[in-house]
Target: Ribonuclease
Amino acid sequence: MDLGEFETDNSVSCRLSSPIPDLCKNEDCCLGIDEAGRGPVLGPMVYGICFCPVSKKEDLKALKVADSKTLTETERENLFMKLDEAKSYVGWALQILSPNTISNSMLQRSKYNLNALSHDAAIGLVRYAIDSGVQLKEVFVDTVGPAEKYQEKLSQQFPGVEVTVRPKADSLFPVVSAASICAKVARDHAVKGWKFAEDLGDVDTDYGSGYPSDPKTKSWLLKYLDPVFGYPQFVRFSWSTAQTLLDTKAVTVHWDDDEEDGEKAAARQNNTSVLSYFSRKPSHGAHPREPHRFFSERKLQSVDTL
Model:
């Protein structure tokens, strides 16, 4: 699977897709939706759709697609190749949600939780299929939140399409299993081939499963925690695991607010004001420090006067 477009800039989300089979533009089609990487603190979450003509359901089933979680990595890769080879009647599309996108969305002022982000990704993919000419009649999807509410939401978005939302849909409907395989293969490739924008030297890529409970993942998070700038963009910094480590292991600063002057409040709490970072001068004879990439990327520089 070629993720070149995402790898060019993995700080933002990206949509990838196969060609639309002509058969899908001329016959009634079914479509499955599933995701990979919802729970990990590392790497992207990938939403996938797979679609084929209703008349080809048995052909899709004959490929022996199954829930990606029950398959080995090699089995998933082989099944994805089979799906790709069946391009005369099978199509797929992916929405890769970067860790940066996930965290920025969840921490924005207006509430936008992971369920809402997932719903919007799924809706966007279904709309993409319809806009691309797929004659969509049936949609099958694993539940995110209450199944009834999700099904009603999708039905309202796509009138005339029969929507079925079921728990464990990836093990019940082959077209959802196929979507699950596409999403999981894409996430595996994205995690393995992650290009770090940050200068971390020879990065240790033995970060385990990426799930917060994994000891290897915990160890990696501790190793690559910058005490001032936090984590590389590979980490979902909105996850409680990352937040807890930042709170306990990173440098504590006091942010200015309207209630109390930042410098005075910091001094009272025996703390460091964030403003002091900008005003700090190099000691006599010392070479000025190169600015962190956070500032150079944003064209920020210190000034003495306004």
Summary: DSSP finds 14 helices and eight strands in the chain. Strands lie at 14-17, 29-36, 45-53, 91-97, 136-142, 162-166, 253-254, 272-273. The CA atoms of residues 65 and 178 lie 6 Å apart.
